[in-house]
Amino acid sequence: STIAGYRQLARNAFKPIADIRLENLSEADVQACINQYALTHSPKTVRNAYGFLRRALKFLGHTKINGVSLPAKKKPDIAVPSDEEVRKCLELADHPGMRQAILLAASTGMRRGEIAALEWQHINYTDSTITISQAYVKASDGKLYLKPPKTALSERTILVGDDIMQGFKALAS
Question: pTM for this structure?
Fold first, then answer.
């Protein structure tokens, strides 16, 4: 997925400077490119794009791009569904496994790749816990691959409620 992201950046983020020869590329050119990209992308995405460009330029021996101004970081605006929205999703779920996945997402904050990668050995009925130790990730070839969690802190054990444990028991039988 990282390589796919780099390819997407190369295709989309740097169009304004794509036809400029490396020896003619100026800091002003890069700043204008970054400013244009920032109009339609989040500050984090812009920072990631600039970091990628800077490393690529440094690799090519172009080290005169240093003073580019980046957009200020923003705290992410996470839309948390209301209890009513979660209830509506649960009502519409026509498979017990999907209902369980919705409950996990709504009550634990697990990522969808982590939910999809859950296996029975990750569920501890005695302690009412779920251990997150793997996740599915979509690669640039479009296929899903089972990998360790996104970060070291993502590997964790989550205490869950009785309704979720009962749902697992019903699925297992």
Answer: 0.63
117 within 8 A of 146, measured Cβ to Cβ = yes
Highest mean pLDDT among 77-91, 112-126, 134-148: 112-126
* Tokens matching residue 63: 């080290």
Angle of helix 162-172 relative to helix 96-108, nearest 10 degrees, comes to 150
Is residue 124 a contact partner of residue 107, using CB atoms and an 8 Å limit?
A: no
Q: Which residues of 98-131 are buried (b: 16+ CB within 10 A; e: fewer)?
A: ebbbbbbbbebebbebbbebbeeebbeeeeeebb
CB 48 within 8 A of CB 84: no
With tokens 């360790």, the residue in question is: 148
Which string of b and e fits 38-48 if b means at least 16 CB within 10 Å?
Answer: beebeeebbbb
Residues pairing with 135 in the sheet: 147
